[in-house]
Amino acid sequence: MCMMKEEMTMKSTEDERLSSVQNAIRLLNVFSVEEAELGISELSDKLGIAKSTVHRLVTTLASEGFIAKDKNTNQYRLGISILALSNVLTSTMPVHQAALPVLHELGKKTKESFLFGIFRGDEVIFLNRIVGGLDFIPALSEIGSRVPAHCTSSGQVFLAYQPKEVVDRIINKGLKRYTKTTITEAHLMHALLRKVREQGYAVSIGELHEGITSIAAPIRNAKGQVVATVSMPGPAQRITPDNIPLLTKHVLQAAKEISLRYQQLK
């Protein structure tokens, strides 16, 4: 009897630990480019858990450097330990290893900046950026930042090659409007994704941030599956309708070279 009670207690403790780990992971995933800093109340509302539980989670995560607190605003943001893990991740990703030399070379050639992104959930995560010699917009594309898929060039490339059920799920959740040019209607999104598949790249003009244009192309594995993207973001006054065709050629060539290098590494 005592042994059974002890086993039940151990199972209850283990379940509580698993729940805490799950909530900690959910908490870290709440942060994004649009919501880089959040307070206890906001985190509690988004996660659907008590403020006291959120406070315990952020205290633990902060002690390990995964969360940092702004003493002026009393809000929390992702900590430096996240970046350390990101560096470990990218250093062991063959596709990232294949991309780096190509992107560095292209950055020198064009003076533009480039982003390396992967698709997770409904978002694109930028795992690396190569800064060229021209003006860059760091706030929009920090390493580790996440952006919506439906209104970014990288995201539209990923969505164009996703199974129908994935695209439908994202559309059915609602396509949030960020600017006056954000596509929010299902039939228009489907039409855009068909166009991206036909031409093999995406161009997003002011859909997430007004005045920002980006061009993206897919990086493929040996099976032809899209596993990452290379994108070129920049101010609309520099990435214009006149030079988009030339810049697109650079992005497409980079994606092709990275894909070949990646496939040779496998």
From TrEMBL:
GO molecular function list: DNA binding; DNA-binding transcription factor activity
PROSITE patterns in the cross-refs: HTH_ICLR, ICLR_ED
HTH iclR-type domain: residues covered: 18-80
Keywords: DNA-binding, Transcription, Transcription regulation
SMART domains per the UniProt record, alphabetical: HTH_ICLR
One example of a Gene Ontology biological process annotation: negative regulation of DNA-templated transcription
Gene3D superfamilies in alphabetical order: 3.30.450.40, Winged helix-like DNA-binding domain superfamily/Winged helix DNA-binding domain
Domain IclR-ED stretches: 81-264
Keyword Membrane in record: no
Role played: May be an activator protein for the gylABX operon.
Protein name: Glycerol operon regulatory protein
Organism in which the protein naturally occurs: Paenibacillus validus
